[in-house]
């Protein structure tokens, strides 16, 4: 059956690994399903030891790309190289990877020890070697005392750790994670993602994870590949993706952001409602209609009537509307004559709300940092800055 073939892979290590700069190289990849193109001209390079997340909404192509790398669903066109070796058309059994699925895919009739040992047995390892390796892996995932149990006797988080141990049992060069945490409850997900990242750093294994959870990607990845409609929107570190979005889609998909209709007035200026604002430098022409974004946490509150702001920032008067308590901060709806018909949402710390005595109906002055006002074309997704 298919599952058996996937797990009983004979892993292959290329002697050319030290001669290439990128461990995994994808070039001009396409995947068609009949008339539907799921992946369009995907090119990507992943360094050895990197933890990379494929992030995007459902149907964006991230899982299809992972399956192409694994050989589970071959690409229509394009090439994939791993450690300098072209694996584009290789069968699964000749590819060097371990994989963890969302559904764990553990054998219910085998003990935890036997589940982990399965791939090692099929690789022809000796009994002594297998016993030692299984004990090492159980200790590595903090389940040393669970080896004699069966999968049904473990929690979901424990089962996922066993699936991870089985995937790395044969020391593959590439670890593929297909939404491994999505079936778990929120608290277990947070705990397990830290364990997975710590384990990946300890082993130094090149890892590619598919997720639709932004928080997961931001907290775990060295780099994030944001995908949409079968193309790569942006590749960058979590900080770059969050602070310097390359398209309106990325700005909107990652975290929360305000989107405001604006008009360009200068190389670093624009208008919002009746207010002239300073912004980051952009490449738009004067008079062009744009969408300017700013994240709620980048809005700085001041005493009402204050015009205290940095020289390259803007200050304007607003009125606080509804306030939503979200634990560590308050999300506030802001309106005002200077904003015209536009509405801003700002995240204010509990201390700021207390210090300024903020409540619905309060007057407030807000500061908008120029470098956090990022402009995009009103009718498209490309960034105009730079």
From TrEMBL:
- Superkingdom, natural source: Bacteria
Record domain ABC transporter: where:
24-254
**Record GO biological process:** quaternary ammonium group transport
What is one GO cellular-component annotation here? ATP-binding cassette (ABC) transporter complex
GO MF term set: ATP binding; ATP hydrolysis activity; transmembrane transporter activity
Q: Which UniProt keywords apply?
A: ATP-binding, Cell inner membrane, Cell membrane, Membrane, Nucleotide-binding, Translocase, Transport
> Which NCBIfam families would you find in this protein's record?
PhnT2 (TIGR03265)
- Protein name (Swiss-Prot/TrEMBL): 2-aminoethylphosphonate ABC transporter ATP-binding protein
Organism listed in the record: Pelagibius litoralis
